[in-house]
Design brief:
The structure is a single chain. About 0% of the residues lie in helices and about 45% in strands. By secondary structure, the chain is mainly β. It has a single domain, classed as 3 Solenoid (UDP N-Acetylglucosamine Acyltransferase, domain 1), CATH 2.160.10.10. The strands form three sheets. It has a five-stranded parallel sheet with strand order 1-4-7-10-13, with no helix packed on it. A five-stranded parallel sheet has the order 2-5-8-11-14, with no helix packed on it. A five-stranded parallel sheet has the order 3-6-9-12-15, with no helix packed on it. The protein starts with a strand and ends in a 6-residue tail after the last strand. The mean pLDDT is about 90.
C-alpha cells in the first residue's frame, strides 16, 4: 500500500494493490484487487476488481468488476465494467 490510509475495521485479501486511497471503516476487499485514487467505506469489493478514481459508500461490488469515475452507491455484479467518469472511449 502506497499513500493509503486504513480506517479499521478493514479486511484486505492477498495480492491487492492499493495506492493513493482511503479505505474504511467497515470495508472488505477480495484478493488481487486494485484500488487507486479512491475512497471506500462501508463496502464489500470482490476479488480481481479494479477500482479507480471513485468514492464508494454502502456499496457491494462483485468479483472481476472494473469501476472508475465519480461518487456513487453501487451494487455491481461479477464480471462488470462501469465507467462513470463521463469520458469518451
Amino acid at each position: 500500500m502506497q499513500n493509503t490510509v486504513l480506517i479499521q475495521p478493514v479486511s484486505i485479501g492477498k495480492g491487492c494493490v492499493i495506492k493513493n486511497s482511503v479505505i474504511g471503516p467497515n470495508v472488505t476487499v477480495g484478493e488481487n484487487t486494485i484500488i487507486n485514487y479512491s475512497i471506500v467505506k462501508d463496502s464489500i469489493i470482490g476479488a480481481y476488481s479494479n477500482i479507480h478514481q471513485i468514492v464508494l459508500e454502502n456499496s457491494l461490488i462483485g468479483s472481476d468488476a472494473e469501476i472508475k469515475g465519480v461518487s456513487r452507491n453501487l451494487n455491481i455484479g461479477d464480471n462488470t465494467a462501469v465507467d462513470l467518469s463521463g469520458g469518451r472511449n
